[in-house]
């Protein structure tokens, strides 16, 4: 269905209700990213060293609306991946 057809067949109220629902319950690719993040964080968490912080699913989900990362943010992200895969802190 095209956007024009949607607007012809649905009221503003219906569309607003759908928008509110979709913000509460992710659908489509966003939902798939969440499922993948849950799996990735589970694998990372069962392999992390005792006493280290647990990973969250959102740390493994793409963030398309983020601003560019500076070099320090890139280093921190790379270090988090190294730790997740059993590497040692500061070995970059």
Characteristics of this structure?
single chain; 92 residues; mainly alpha; 4 helices; 0% strand
Describe the structure.
With 92 residues, the chain is mainly alpha-helical. It has one domain (3-84). Helices cover 58% and strands 0% of the residues.
How does the SSE layout of this entry go?
Blueprint (H helix, E strand, L loop, with lengths): L2 H7 L2 H13 L3 H19 L24 H14 L8
In short:
With 92 residues, the chain is mainly α. The chain has helices at residues 3-9, 12-24, 28-46, 71-84.
Global Rg: 19 Å
Give a quick account of the main beta sheet: strands, pairing sense, barrel closure: none
Helix content: 55-70%
Please tell me the overall pLDDT.
84
How many helices? 4
Counting DSSP E segments of at least 2 residues, the number of strands comes to 0
Strand content: under 5%
Structural class of the secondary structure composition?
mainly alpha
Terminal Cα span: 50 Å
Shape: elongated
Low-confidence stretches: none
Overall number of structural domains:
1
Order of helices and strands: HHHH
